[in-house]
Amino acid sequence: MQLIDGKVVAEQVKQEIAAEVAQMVAQGRRAPHLAAILVGHDGGSETYVANKIKACAVCGFKSSLIRFEETVSEAELLAAIDGLNRDPEVDGFIVQLPLPKHIDEQKIVEAIDYRKDVDGFHPVNVGRACIGLPSFLSATPAGILELLRRYKIETAGKHVVIIGRSNIVGKPLANLLMRKDYPGNATVTVVHSYSTDIKQQCLSADIIVCALGRPHFLKEDMVKEGATVIDVGTTRVPSTLTKSGFKLTGDVDFDAVAPKCAYITPVPGGVGPMTIVSLMKNTLLAGAKAIY
Q1: pLDDT tens digits, residue range 16-60?
Q2: The domain spanning residue 101 has which CATH number?
Q3: Is 121 exposed, middle or buried (0-12, 13-18, 19+ CB in 10 A)?
Q4: Which residues are catalytic?
Q5: Based on the structure, what is the number of domains in the chain?
Q6: pTM
């Protein structure tokens, strides 16, 4: 069993990005600028945004944070997005999800200029990715592809089972793994809450990506010997062993499943760091005007 270390790979990618940014600046161009909008004080969102700001510093980006309380109106949020869309000094920006229930998340996503949509959520970017045109790829699927690439895990002709059909992970990842490229050329099965044969599908899988959001869902008896398992789950569960009072738990029963795997990602330290570094790669592309 080999552990897929997302922290190590993410640091390598950040250093590669930093070198490109240094070259841009040496040529008299400005460093890319990533902005983030954060609504409320959700613990997970605060952590993610803080990590993104730290990653910007390592990559040599300029970063800025716009905060709103949970009581912010949809109109106020849309006005802030319009301001960032119009700001020529901002190359890309994100609106950290989830948002309060009184705000229509899809309306917010579609209000972002797709040319600055470095999260890769806008329908234009999703659609372009689906037909193989240059676009900003959704950060988590792109991070998973980078891990497969860096660890030289074969995907061509392999059976990949993705557990979960979200617009953020499951659907875009399925599309990317079917493309005529590497990583890609896989036979992809997507299972979800209405699937009746999840265990049988998983037992036939060469690669399993678990993105369901249910701690320890994937058990030892669902994985064949020599499979690769990618755990996207990051559920915060109470813990008396940490200062914060919680710990991140994946969708995979790691201790039981890992001995059967050829490769497996841990939680934390697997896919999470790659999601952030994929956002950095999109921001670099935005700053370089490499796509739009």
Answers
A1: 999 999 999 999 999 999 999 999 988 878 888 999 999 999 999
A2: 3.40.50.10860
A3: buried
A4: 52, 96, 119
A5: 2
A6: 0.94
Residue 166 φ/ψ, nearest 5 degrees? -70, 160
The answer to whether residues 143 and 105 belong to one domain is: no
Domain boundary among 71, 97, 113: 113
**pLDDT at position 235, please?**
87
Distance CA 175, CA 188 (A): 9
The pLDDT assigned to 222 comes to 98
- pLDDT at position 151 is 98
Which range marks the domain in which residue 158 is found? 139-271
Q: What is the CATH number of the domain that holds 154?
A: 3.40.50.720
Residue 263 lies inside a defined structural domain of this protein: yes
* pLDDT tens per residue, range 148-181: 999 999 999 999 999 999 999 999 999 999 999 9
Residues of the chain with pLDDT under 70: none
